[in-house]
């Protein structure tokens, strides 16, 4: 599994001047997310156990891991918007 | 790049070019690859920033002060496919006549991982989704979508290129690299 995004950056410019820059090291949130993930996994494992006992296919845990996989794959996403017709505004968003 | 190398070696094997010519072509190919790697830079995952910054320039030509970002509209970035030639990113570029410009780069792995999730949708919900899609003219069964089909589809995306030129001059370019 790939490493989840570790840095998000956002930049905003108007009339050719950088107005606002924001970057946040997402890896600082990883410990919190890990705790949340562990709690969620316990809940989904219990739900899967109940599902299995009731004779249906358990999917909750796999679903959570799948969602985590999708989030991990978002690294490299870049969005760039330039509004030349409105103060030449530029917004850029990057996920590393 | 691997395809070009194979093609040169095939030409040599079939006797259509001499060994000297093949060596010359391979050298030229290596030089091109080195140049591409040099201009593209790269991060730890082997993926590179979307090269040049034409899109980040303002109308007056001044720079916005941030690092290089997307290439300008209509300009393709450097080769970005993996060693197997599988495209890694999908690019959507929109350029309006007013000068508005939108560039989006999405990792194709998101699509792959997302479609794998469809296998986890409960059967009842999946039936309902298929029914709803059929009602809207999309006869498409998600259960028929296998991971190997996904790989094939992504491989085929390399050849995909969508160009839309609207009557008022706006342009949309969608491609995968």
Map the helices and strands.
The complex is a heterodimer of chains A (96) and B (177).
Chain A lengths: L6 E8 L2 E9 L4 H24 L6 H13 L5 E6 L5 E7 L1
Antiparallel strand pairs in A: 1-2, 1-4, 3-4
Chain B lengths: L1 H12 L5 H22 L48 E7 L5 E7 H11 L4 H13 L11 H10 L4 E5 L5 E6 L1
Antiparallel strand pairs in B: 1-2, 1-4, 3-4
Helix pairs in contact in B: 1-2, 3-5
Question: Nutshell version of this structure?
Answer:
The complex is a heterodimer of chains A (96) and B (177). Helices cover 39% and strands 31% of the residues of chain A. With 96 residues, chain A is of the alpha+beta class.
Description:
The complex is a heterodimer of chains A (96) and B (177). Chain A contains two helices and four strands; from the N terminus they run E-E-H-H-E-E. Chain A is α+β, with helices and mostly antiparallel strands. Chain A has one domain. Chain A has a four-stranded antiparallel β-sheet, with no helix packed on it. The model of chain A has no long low-confidence stretch (mean pLDDT 87). Chain B is built from five helices and four strands. Chain B has helices spanning 2-13, 19-40, 108-118, 123-135, 147-156; strands at 89-95, 101-107, 161-165, 171-176. Chain B has a four-stranded antiparallel β-sheet. The A-B interface holds A 2, 11, 13, 15-18, 21, 59, 62-63, 66-67, 69-70, 72-85, 88, 90, 92, 94, 96 and B 43, 45, 47, 50, 55-56, 58-60, 62-66, 69-70, 88-89, 96, 98-107, 109-110, 112-114, 116-117, 120, 122.
């Amino acid at each position: 599994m790939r490493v989840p995004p570790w840095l998000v950056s956002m930049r905003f410019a108007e009339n050719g001047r950088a107005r606002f820059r924001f970057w946040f090291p997402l890896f600082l949130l990883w410990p919190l997310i890990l705790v949340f993930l562990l709690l969620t996994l316990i809940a989904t494992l219990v739900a899967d156990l109940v599902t299995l006992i009731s004779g249906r296919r358990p999917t909750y845990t796999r679903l959570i891991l799948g969602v985590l996989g999708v989030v991990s794959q978002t690294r490299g996403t870049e969005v760039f918007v330039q509004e030349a017709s409105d103060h030449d505004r530029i917004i850029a968003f990057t996920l590393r | 790049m691997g395809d070009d190398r194979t093609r040169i070696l095939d030409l040599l094997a079939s006797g259509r070019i001499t060994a000297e010519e093949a060596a010359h072509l391979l050298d030229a190919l290596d030089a091109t690859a080195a140049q591409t790697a040099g201009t593209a830079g790269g991060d730890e995952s082997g993926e590179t920033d979307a090269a040049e910054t034409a899109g980040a320039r303002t109308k007056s030509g001044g720079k916005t002060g941030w690092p290089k970002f997307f290439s300008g509209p209509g300009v393709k970035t450097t080769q970005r496919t993996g060693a197997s030639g599988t495209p890694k990113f999908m690019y959507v570029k929109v350029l309006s006549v007013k000068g508005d410009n939108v560039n989006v780069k999405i990792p194709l792995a998101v699509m792959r991982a997302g479609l794998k999730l469809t296998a986890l949708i409960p059967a009842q919900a999946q039936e309902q989704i298929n029914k709803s899609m059929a009602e809207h003219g999309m006869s498409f069964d998600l259960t028929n979508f296998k991971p190997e089909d996904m790989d094939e589809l992504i491989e085929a995306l390399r050849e995909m290129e969508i160009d839309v030129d609207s009557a008022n001059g706006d342009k949309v370019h969608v491609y995968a690299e």
